[in-house]
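Hi! If you just cloned this repository, the fastest way to understand the data is to look at a raw example. We've pasted two of them here, unedited. The first protein comes first, obviously.
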Amino acid sequence: MSDTTEKIIAQTEDGMHKAITHLEAELVKIRAGKANPNMLDSITVDYYGNPTPIGQVGNISVLDARTLSIQPWEKNMLQPIERAIMASNIGITPQNDGVLIRLYLPPLTEERRKELVKRANGEGEHSKVAIRNIRRDAIEHIKKLQKEGVSEDAVKDAEKDVQQITDKYIALVDKHLATKEKEIMAI
């Protein structure tokens, strides 16, 4: 195999690995009945005119399996944090006691669990589409090489390698989704 095809295959695998990393980050945000500080990663607070992640304006900790607490570093940030959580529409009502904000996660109903599984599957489908797009781009690159004089056998081998990498990463997406579904549906 030529250096060029090896480089394309390495770039393909790197891109697919990034798609898996993104999927893992998105799946962490989908709550599975247990309190997890990462659930709040996507929520930003207006901090002196700048949108700032909650984790950068206060300390987020897990009190128990169903409770998160947020202790802002500045007392005047209690109201903006509370408003940001309400506006984020994550299905949790914050409890402000003047010192810290508590988030009590209600137990998941069967219907809500199914919605979360659908959301997880949607994220998985986005990752699969991204992986397939990376495969398509890699194969187009490889076919251009054939026009530039790379042998047909080398092109076929490179395409086969790209397909094997694609299959491996699609299987990894399915594995992550199965794990997350099991986690969500566990009572």
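Ok, and the second one:
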Amino acid sequence: MNTKYIENILKTSKILYIEDDIKYRDNVSKALNMKSDYVISVSCLEEAIKVYNENSIDIIITEIMIKTGTSINFIKSIRKINKNIPIIVVSSLKDTEILLEAVKLNLIDYIIKPIELKILRDALTSSVISIFDNGLYEVEFTNGAKYNFRKKILIKDEINLTLTSKEVRLLDILLYNRKILLPMDNLKDMLWENESYVSDEAFKSILNRLRKKIGKESIENISSSGYLLKLKEGK
């Protein structure tokens, strides 16, 4: 993958940056804005969760120690629904225990402050490569429909098929975990994080609408124990 192509992809990637030091956040945000047109900077984990849930974030960069707590638990919560989104951790700490815990969370990099721009650029490049390596740029389903993961666009026979926000979220969850059999209750919890009760019928309604667009055979219900996404062979 050539440098120019990586830069073009990065330019349209949505980056979530979490840092509670205002001056440091502003400086790093300026550097990030030179690489991407979509940088969202926040100062606390609560705001980060809200931004992540309301936006199609491609890359996360987070300080490990935030005033409201460590970002380790935030990263763990992201990993429950998204195994592959590139995450870069930044810290002034060289705490071995925290470092070892962070490494278990499939990070792109663990950058020690002060951040060197070359190291940050290399980590962003690795993030773009990771997106492609995990097949999260464009996938094709058995009915010929193609889904651009980053733009959240589904196209079949050169026609743009409209996806609701819940259909996008369900499709993304299945893609993130496409090698894992996901029970319906788990999928409901991921789709409706703040709802205490959601009926099976509500879930199946979204599932069936999505199946009509990507092909019924693309979402397989295996022995009534869970759902598994199937892509076009070789994709």
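That's it. A detail worth noticing about the second one: The longest strand covers residues 14-18.
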